[in-house]
Amino acid sequence: QVQLVESGGGVVQAGGSLKLSCAASGGSFSSYAMAWFRRAPGKEREFMSAVVQNGGTLAYANSVKGRFTISRDIAKKTLYLQMNSLKPEDTAVYYCAASTSWEPAPITDAYNYWGQGTQVTVSS
Fold first, then answer.
1. What does DSSP assign to residue 107?
2. The pLDDT of residue 67 is above 90
């Protein structure tokens, strides 16, 4: 069973950048598909993107395409989300998730393990 801990959130001005990290422990990191989701105030949890077991990247949400980049470091057992050109509407709690499925669907039910989340606030 894998445990996930996110870090790197904070307060940033619009147009700025942040890099989120998700450290995994207790499992075989490369055997999981790893994803980032976010939940904005008053909204459902939204899929951002995922890296599957062979290193391939699943499609980004339209709202972040071209601005966010997902990556992983297998040796460090860490998933990253580089966020550039941040907008106030990117304000949310960002969650890391892991799935034992191959190319899991971009929905919360497809992921077995979740971190506690890290808050990102973008000021205008």
1. S
2. yes
| Residues paired with residue 46 on neighbouring β-strands, in sequence order | 38
- Sequence-distant (6+) residues with CB within 8 A of 75 are none
What is the rounded CA–CA span in Å between residue 9 and residue 7? 6
Matching residue, tokens 């147009």 = 15
Q: Which pLDDT score, from 0 to 100, does residue 120 have?
A: 98
CA 106 to chain centre: 12
| Structure tokens given for 29 | 């990191």
Q: Give the Å distances, CA to CA, from 112 to 18, 37, 57, 72.
A: 26, 13, 19, 18
SS3 assignment, position 83: strand
In this structure, what token pair is assigned to residue 14?
Answer: 């619009």
Q: Could you tell me which of 9, 35, 31 has the C-alpha nearest to residue 122? A: 9
Cα angle, residue 65 at apex, residues 52 and 90 outer, rounded to 5°: 105
Are 4 and 21 within 8 A, CB to CB? no
pLDDT band at 61 (very low <50, low <70, confident <90, very high): confident
